[in-house]
Every structure is written in C-alpha cells, then in structure tokens.
Write a sequence for this structure.
C-alpha cells in the first residue's frame, strides 16, 4: 500500500501545457448528477462532499493527465474526447525492461485514476490525451470521503464483481490485482445452453473463454483419445490441438461444446498477449490438464479408470484462492470434497471436545479434505485455511452424484473412503424414503420400536392362528378332508393380519437428524401423526426402563423442549441410553455449526468491507428444474396430484397462503345443492306442465307453486354463495417473519385474525385422522406458540405434511437469519476498529477521512 493521504502535505500542481481551468459552480452542479458513478446518490449530499476543488479542465492533445507511480492528487472524469491509457510492468524475460501490459483508448464516461482511488495507490497507469479533451477534475480526498460515506459506488467505479471472479481463476494465479482489474474491464459475459458449439476447429482464435459456471467438452474427431472435460474455473480457446502436438497458431484446432448451462467471461487474445509479456502462463494451455492430472494422484479415485477421471475433472470446480481464506469450518456441514493441488499450502486447525485449541498443522499439496461428503453429508471435523495463491479442486456431492448416474452407478462403491457401515446404510435409506427432509439435513439415527412391540402387535393374529390350527386338527379327526375347505381361508386371514401388524410396526419410527428429532405414528390407511422438535429447543432427555426393559434393552424416551407443549415420547425404543447420547451429541454439533457459520459470516463481511471478497462458485452444474419430475407423470397422475394438492397457493417467495381443502367446501354445500336440485326439478315439471297446457284447469295453481318455490330456491342459492365466500375468506398464511390464522365471515360480519412471530413457534404437529383424509391428503396442522393466543390450528388443510415442512423450513431460516443479524450487529464497527488499531500500532494514520 502507498502512504496515507490523510494529513497529506500541501503540494502545488504544475500546470500542464495546453490546459485551461475554469470553475463555474453552476455548471459543475448541473453535470454532477449525470456522472455515471454518482447516479442514484442524494444530490445534495454528493454536492456537499465534492464541491470543494471540483472543476472543469480543457486539455490539449498529448497532455499527460496521470503519470504512472506518481502521487494521485486528482482524478479525472472524461466528458469529451479520447485518452490513451497505458500500464507498464517489468518484462518476464528481462526485469530491467518495462513492457505495456495494458493499452487501450478510453471513451467519455470513464473515471481516470479510479484504481488509485480504490486501492489507495499512486497512479497505476499513464493517461495521455489522444485528442483535445474536456474533463471534470475531482480532488482525490473528496472522492475518498464520498466513497466512505457511500460504499456502494465502489461497484459503479470499477467492475468489482468481475474482478472478484477473475481473481479466483487459476489461469490468473500470480497476476497482481491492479493489472487484473484493468483486464476485468475488457471481460464480456456470454451464456450458452447445453450442447451448443462455442467454436469449431477452423475458426481463428479471437477470445479466451473463462468458464464462470458450467461444463465444456473439448474434442477432435480425429483424436478421440484426447477428449477433455472442463468444469467451472477452467479456460478454453487456446489455439492448437488438445494436448501435446503441433499447435496451429492461427486456428483453434479443436471443437468446444457445452455439456450444461454455461456462462463464460470472454477476454480478447490481443489483451492476453500483452499481459503474457509479464505473465507468460496466462496463454499456457497446460492449465487445462491440471484437474485431471491431480485426480490421478488422489487415492479416493484409485479404482477409477483414466477415462473416468478425465470425465470427473469436468465435474470439479477449479479455483485459485489468492489470500488466506477458510474453506472448511469445524462444525459446519460440508457439501464438497476439497483437493489442494501440487505446490499449494494450507493449514489445519481444530478444537477438542472441551473447546481447547489443538496444534495447527501445515500441509502441502497434493492432499484432500472432507472426502466423506461424496458418500454422505457430515459435520466437518477440522478447520482448513488456505495459504495465498493456492489452487484447489472442489467436488460438490450433487455434481459427483450426477457424474455417477451418467457414467456408472457402481462408481459410488469404488470410492476409497472409510465410513461406518451403519451410517452409510442410514443415509441411503434417508435419500430413498425421506426426501421431505430439509436442505443440508442428514439422517443420524433411524429407530423403530423394539421387537417386543412387534410381538405385541402380532399377539392376536398368533392366538387366532393357534386356535385355528387346533380347530383344524380337531376337525380333521372328526371329519377327515374338511380342513381343506377351512384351512386356506383361515390361513389367508391370519397372513393378512400378520402383514398388517408388520407394516404398522414399520410405519412408526423415531428419527434423529443433524437438525431435529422426529416422531411419526401411522396406522395404515387410517391415521398419521408426526411431531418434532429442533435440536436447539431440546432441554432435557429422560429415559425410563422397567425390569424387562433393562433385561431386553428397551425403554421409554421422553424429550422435553423449551416450549410448554409437553414432551415427545417414544416407548419401547431400542437402546434408549445410546439414543439419548446421540441426541445430546447432535445438539452439541448443531451449536458448533452455528458458531462455524457465524465465523464464516464474519470472514465474508470483513472481506466485503476490505474489497477482497472471493467469488467461489460451489457447483459446476445448475440444479435441475424442479418441475422436471412432474413432466414424467402420466395424465392420470397429474390429475390426481392436482386434486390432492391444488389448494396450496404460492403468492411469492416471501409469503405462502393456504385455504381449506375443497372437499370441506363440497361437504358444506352438498345439502343446499341437493335441496336446490329438488326444487329445480319441481319447477321444471311445473314449467313444462304450464307450457304444454297439460293442466289448464290448474294453471293458476301451477303458477303459484312456481312463485312459491322461487323464494326457497333463491334462499338456497344465497346460502350456497354465503358458504363459498365463507370458505374462501378463511385462510392460513406464513411469511418470512409471521404466521397468520384468519377466520372471516362474509359481508364483513366478523373477522378473527390471530398472528404470531416465527420466533415464538415452539412445536408444529400434523394429524391425518381418517381414511378419507388419508385418501385426499388433507388434515389438521397445529402450531403451538409462546404467544398469548396459544396454538394456531390450521383445520382441513391440503397436504398437511408439506404445510408442516414449509413452516419448519421458514422457522429454521428465520433462526439462522436472526443469528446472522446478531453477528452483523456485533461486528458492524469491527473493521473500523481493526483498521484504526493496526494503523495506530504501526505509527500510521488512517486512509479514509472519518466524519
């Protein structure tokens, strides 16, 4: 960093040849609101900051506005004309020879000297008037004050997002930030759909394509063994053949086709060739092969063939991390395997169970971390911090599963990873049977009741079976051959009862995940009840056992939460003491995960404040369209799905509204509609009787009957309208912060609105209590709160399982956001404290002027 400008000594500026300066304040004030990086700011505040020392200047052709490495006292906003910009750096071949690594012509609308302002440096390039120019000159100190007051203009002055992304591209490893920032201004984005051709072999190379996100395959039909898969972070567009061979400098020499939705950063080859005078590796195609070569050295994939590793490289994100950065935090849920490439360095640290720090361990590449994520999501056991300028591969478990499904499902079993067998089985069961569990939620313990409970359910079928067997044997003694008529039906009945008992036994379970405990009680085709509690709500777990429970290893588990809703009880559970220990261990890990997420939030906040935040995409492939599964349904399946779930109405991402199931409306209108139908039939009969003069002598009586029947018909019609409006007026709503239960009578007769904040929700349960409710998928959801109104009951709501999961998801999101809000409040002023402390300790003065 250059020396601070705070308290800068007063300097005189030499008047440039051909410069004319004038300061009509009204003209400056009229132009300032239209300056690109000032748009959207409060005009009065911006003028107050910039009015001192801001003026117009007319400069003649050849005038030097900024001299590289000289003190940046002024910045210039180009209003008219053109300016030639050059940045010179020592050559890679001869450090004593300086070469232009950046060279371009600037058009109006550019702030000249912007990187000196942003990075607190002297001028980073030379700017020379290419024609006569008109510029708006700002004092650098004034823009510093403006930047401190409105930090959002940083992204308007420079392409901050693009710079952050290019810093993490492996091909730019070692390129200093200022030069890379100039290059980011030339980068253009371009998107491709899957199976699109990016370029062909006969096209002359015009751009280098950097894969922001997505996947590309390079191939040459004449050289099928040189096919190359590339993922997020890699680069394509190097001229010549794939791999070693005679390059063709004037042609790409191969095909590039996208295999997934892909976004590129395009950079002109002319700019890269200038950059290569200082950094030759930016035009070296060997960077493309590093992911594949690294995977060959990782023992986890030693059972894979080279062809499979070559394809797997295209499912890995290739990342350059230019600074100290935490990639894995102890206690967090890791979703990816990380691989440190050769010559890279990292540091491992951890806390023991007593929160004591263990010795830090430095490691060198090639080495990998958290490979268990490829088989099953688990808590990270150690913190991993990168050293500056290290290269990494990140393999997300979802991308790996896509690779396995497309290549060979048996590859999952070929991974050289040691995971306890019971955990692997449990997580496989979770992914198959319990997809309603939340994102990042994994199964820890899956429990049915003890086998004693199964014997209890089968006792009556067994008694019937024994009695029937005795009867059949006795019948065979009295009337030989009769048992052939009675035996099969009785046996079938017994088998059905046994099957019902077994299914009923397996429908009841108790699950512990890394986020919550869940109890489900279900009677096949009759009732279903589920209750749960978040791990952070668990206060006490009690175990009660009887004599036989102690002998056979079962007992009663009671979980008490912070609410007043009683306890979650699961009787006849196997090994209750071990289950109790599991709950407390997962609760401890859950709290550790919150602390880990808070630390990562602090890191991100500090990096954002210092302008060094890293853009590190976690995935190669974008998630598949959620509606894709619905497209595979048959017409009948889509109709039945609509019948069962149609009353769920998504208003927006912030609010969901449910109404009662349509079957309840049908139940309420059936009686009046039936009476209306009877009246309508009578009225039709009397109408045709009168129309065809069938009873001329009773014509007046028929007309009277029609008039009399019209009144109850209209009354019934109004009654039906009232019922429909009453059904529509009752709704249940959940937002980002609140849950609402509204009961409203038509015509403004009465409205009862009960509302509670999400933070007061203690327990959410649902109950399906009849075969009809099971068939049409509706039931009751009870939300127990700590508010004065107590429980909110959602009666007759469609898809109660989905409603319960949606409420739980929003409660978890609210708790996490609340944790982050608290962290942000605590650390709001920490960057200023640390900056001032470090500068005072070093005997320096602060960079920014603080008002």
């Amino acid at each position: 960093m250059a020396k601070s400008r705070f308290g800068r000594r007063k300097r005189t500026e030499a008047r440039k040849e051909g410069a004319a300066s004038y300061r009509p304040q009204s003209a400056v004030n009229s132009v300032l609101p239209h300056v690109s990086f000032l748009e959207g700011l409060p005009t009065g505040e911006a003028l107050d900051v910039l009015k001192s020392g801001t003026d117009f200047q007319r400069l003649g052709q050849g005038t030097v506005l900024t001299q590289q490495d000289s003190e940046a006292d002024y910045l210039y906003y180009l209003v008219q004309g053109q300016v030639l910009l050059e940045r010179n750096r020592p050559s890679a071949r001869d450090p004593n020879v300086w070469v232009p690594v950046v060279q371009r012509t600037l058009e109006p609308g550019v702030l000249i000297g912007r990187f000196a302002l942003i990075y607190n440096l002297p001028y980073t390039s030379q700017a020379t008037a290419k024609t006569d120019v008109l510029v708006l000159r700002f004092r650098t100190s004034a823009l510093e004050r403006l930047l401190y007051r409105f930090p959002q203009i940083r992204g308007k002055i420079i392409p901050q997002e693009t710079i952050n992304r290019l810093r993490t591209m492996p091909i730019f490893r070692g390129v200093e930030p200022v030069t890379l920032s100039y290059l980011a201004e030339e980068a253009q984005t371009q998107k491709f759909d899957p199976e699109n051709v990016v370029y062909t072999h006969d096209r002359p190379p015009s751009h280098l394509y950097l894969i922001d996100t997505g996947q590309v395959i390079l191939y040459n039909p004449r050289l099928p063994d040189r096919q190359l898969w590339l993922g997020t972070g890699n680069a394509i567009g190097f001229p010549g053949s794939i791999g070693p061979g005679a390059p063709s400098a004037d042609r790409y020499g191969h095909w590039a086709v996208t295999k997934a939705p892909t976004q590129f950063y395009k950079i002109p080859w002319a700019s890269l060739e200038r950059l290569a005078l200082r950094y030759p590796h930016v035009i070296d195609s060997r960077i493309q092969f590093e992911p594949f070569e690294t995977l060959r050295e990782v023992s986890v994939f030693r059972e894979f063939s080279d062809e499979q590793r070559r394809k797997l490289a295209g499912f890995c994100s290739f990342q350059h991390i230019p600074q100290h950065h935490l990639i894995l935090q102890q206690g967090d849920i890791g979703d990816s395997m990380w691989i440190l490439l050769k010559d890279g360095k990292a540091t491992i640290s951890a806390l023991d169970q007593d929160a004591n720090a263990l010795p830090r361990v430095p490691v060198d590449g090639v080495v990998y971390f958290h490979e268990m994520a490829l088989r099953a999501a688990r808590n990270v056991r150690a913190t991993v911090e990168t050293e500056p300028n290290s290269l990494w591969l990140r393999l997300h478990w979802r991308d790996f599963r896509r690779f396995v499904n497309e290549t060979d499902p048996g590859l999952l079993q070929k991974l050289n990873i040691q995971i306890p067998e019971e955990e692997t089985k449990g997580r496989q069961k979770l992914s198959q049977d319990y997809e309603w569990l939340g994102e990042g939620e994994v199964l820890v313990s899956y429990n049915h009741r003890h086998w004693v409970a199964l014997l209890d359910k089968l006792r009556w079928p067994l008694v019937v079976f024994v009695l029937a067997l005795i009867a059949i044997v006795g019948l065979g003694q009295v009337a030989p051959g009769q048992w052939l008529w009675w035996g099969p039906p009785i046996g079938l009945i017994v088998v059905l009862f046994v099957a019902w008992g077994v299914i009923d036994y397996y429908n009841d379970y108790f699950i512990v995940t890394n986020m919550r405990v869940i109890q489900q009680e279900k009677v096949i085709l009759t009732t279903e009840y589920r209750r749960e509690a978040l791990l952070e709500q668990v206060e006490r777990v009690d175990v009660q056992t009887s004599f036989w429970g102690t002998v056979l290893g079962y007992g009663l588990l009671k979980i008490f939460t912070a609410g007043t809703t009683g306890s979650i009880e699961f009787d006849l559970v196997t090994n209750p003491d071990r289950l109790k220990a599991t709950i407390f261990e997962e609760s401890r890990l859950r709290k550790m995960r919150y602390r880990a997420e808070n630390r990562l939030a602090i890191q991100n906040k500090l990096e954002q404040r210092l302008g060094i935040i890293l853009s590190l995409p976690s995935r190669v492939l974008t998630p598949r369209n959620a509606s894709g599964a619905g497209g595979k349904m048959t017409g009948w399946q889509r109709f039945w799905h609509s019948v069962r779930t149609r009353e769920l109405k998504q208003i927006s991402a912030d609010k969901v509204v449910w109404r009662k199931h349509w079957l309840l409306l049908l139940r309420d209108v059936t009686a009046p509609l039936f009476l209306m139908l009877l009246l309508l039939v009578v009225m039709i009969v009397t109408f045709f009787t009168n129309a065809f003069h069938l009873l001329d002598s009773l014509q007046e009586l028929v007309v009277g009957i029609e008039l009399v029947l019209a009144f109850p018909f209209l009354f019934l019609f109004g009654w039906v309208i009232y019922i429909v409006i009453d059904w529509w007026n009752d709704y249940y709503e959940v937002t980002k912060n609140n849950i609402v239960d509204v009961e409203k009578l038509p015509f403004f007769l009465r409205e009862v609105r009960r509302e509670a904040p999400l933070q007061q929700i203690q327990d959410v349960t649902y109950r399906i209590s009849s075969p009809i409710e099971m068939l049409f998928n509706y039931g009751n959801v009870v939300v127990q709160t700590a508010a004065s109104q107590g429980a909110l009951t959602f009666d007759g709501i469609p898809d109660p399982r989905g409603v319960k999961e949606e409420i739980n998801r929003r409660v978890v999101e609210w708790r996490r956001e609340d944790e982050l809000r608290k962290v942000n409040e605590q650390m709001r002023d920490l960057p200023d404290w640390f900056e001032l402390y470090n500068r005072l300790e070093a005997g320096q003065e602060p960079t920014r002027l603080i008002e």
